[in-house]
Every structure is written in structure tokens, then in C-alpha cells.
Amino acid sequence: MKTVSKFSLTVMLLAALSFFSGCKKKSEDPPANGPVPVVSTINYSNVLLNTADLSGNVTDDRGLYVSKHGFCWSNTNTNPTIQNDTMVAGDGAGSYTGTITGLKGQRKYYVRAFATNSNGTGYGSILTLTTIDTTITDIDNNRYLIVQIGTQVWMAENLKTTRYNDGVGIPLVTDDVEWANEQIGAYCYYNNDPANAAVYGALYNWFVVQSGNLAPAGWHVPTDGEWVTLLNFLGGKNIAGGKMKEQGLAHWSDPNTGADNSSGFSGLPGGERICILQLVFYDEVQIFGNWWSANGNSGEKASFFSLYYMSPFVQSSIVGKTTGYSIRCIRN
After folding, report:
1. Residues 6+ away with beta carbon under 8 Å from 67
2. Which of 19, 66, 80, 242 is the most exposed place for a label (fewest CB within 10 A)?
3. Domains of the chain
4. What's the pTM value of the predicted model, to 2 decimals?
């Protein structure tokens, strides 16, 4: 039988200890990718139908260039990652902001900041936000669809209310002479037919706008500037009308030029009740859609904006305050 010397046994023991020691050290090594950026989700604001503003901060880049930072979100995954919806806001360390888009109305979303370096992606804390409702209700319990166009939120239907938002009734004036001489707020229906309200809403004189109490809480009648913001977002007044008009010939007369309603505004040709030399008549339903602006002067005129069945153009002008026009409201 071969005898193992003490020297040989010692060598074998040392070799074994060295092997196990090496294995242990290898298991404690940091991951091959190394540390990822440290990022925090700061806040959200201006939550609308389809968008929300977010802010984040890369507080530690871990000594490596941050190739991108931004936000990720989901309405189903409570721990969103960059595999979900993502918005890249920029690169580098420090604070940043961004607007996430493509959201749906009246839904809860989970959002958080992220930052990526060559080692991988780090995430901030998860916040929850809920987009605004897809409808708005007036004091008469009429419910209106709403639409976000750019950063504005508009009613997508014409106003129908018969009361101010404080509960005071708006006079319904059907008599032509009374309408022509009215100097307080009044409303009517096209051809004095209440059935027209279901599609076209009511027609109002400008004095209801002047009251400041017409729109539902949190909403108002748009100013000239807000109308212009809308038109500019849609490419300018020469083409915006096509993007604002309801498609087809169900309500617009043929040819309804350029109408694709790509904005979702769903403009309808509700016509007008017009006063000319004390003559009062209804005109131009299915031809023109006319909407009051909140801008009036100290005289007898106020601003309006108009869509026409034969053009994608949006007209703006002034007209007598006793005219009956449609109204759309915009969110504050």
C-alpha cells in the first residue's frame, strides 16, 4: 500500500482551500452589468384626456453616461418598465420633464421615471394618475362628449342648456320682435322646433355669454385667443375647418368640402337666428356652423367663428349681439 507523505497531504489541502476560496470570491463579485442610474419620479400635473405632464430626476449616474431618461407607464401593469409605453425626455443626469401622450380618458395609469446607462435601466417610484372623464354634464343634466385637441379640451357637441350654471333659467324667446329687441340672455331652437336641439343644440344670443354663468363649472365660452390656438394647432384657418367638420352628409349639405373631422371637434351646421332691420329669421342650417366667442365690444357687436359646407376654411368676424348662434365650451 502506497503511503501519502505529510508534505503531499499539505499540498493537496492547500490546493483544495484555494479552489473553494476562489469559488466563494467569484460568487460575491458584482453582476457583470454593474450599477444602473438612480432616478426618482418627482410629480405629475396637467392631467387631461390624452396627456399628462411628468417630472423626474437622475440623482446619480453611477459614473457612466446616461444615454436616455424619461417615463414609462401602463394602465394594466402596476410595475411599468420600458417594455410598456415609454416616452424619452432626453439624456444625462439631473432633473427633467416631459409630456406623455396616447392616454385614454377616465382611466387609471401607473407611471414612473427611468434612466439608462451602459449597465442597464434604473426606475423611480411608481405614481398613479387618473385621466379626466370623457364627458361633461351641464346643470340640466345634458351630457356632452369632450375631446382633447392639442393642450385644449373642448366640448364635442353644441350646448343645450336652458339654465345658467347657478340655476337661473334662460328665457326661451320664440317671438321675432321680442328676440330682435332683447338685451338680456335668451335662447331658442332652430325654426322654434325643440327637436332640433338633439342634434344642433340651442341657439343663444350673445348676452348669455356676457353673463359669465353659462358654462358648466370648470368650463367657459372660448375667447378669440383660444379659438385661434385651436386653428393654429390644426394647421391654420385655411384648412382647420375640414379637420373640425363632422364627416359625411348626414347633417352637412353636399359637398361638405374637406371634412374629415380628424380633430374630433365634430362641428355641426346649426345655422343661425339673424336680425336684419328688425326682421328676424332662421337661416343656413346644414350650410354654416356658427359659434360665439367670449369677446364682445362695448357696442352692438361680438366675435364669432364659422364653418362652411363648401370650404375647409374657418371664418371669423363680428356680428350683432342679438344674433342666435351655437356655443361650444372649453375647459378652464
Report:
1. 91, 116, 117, 118
2. 19
3. 38-130 (2.60.40.10), 135-331 (no CATH)
4. 0.85
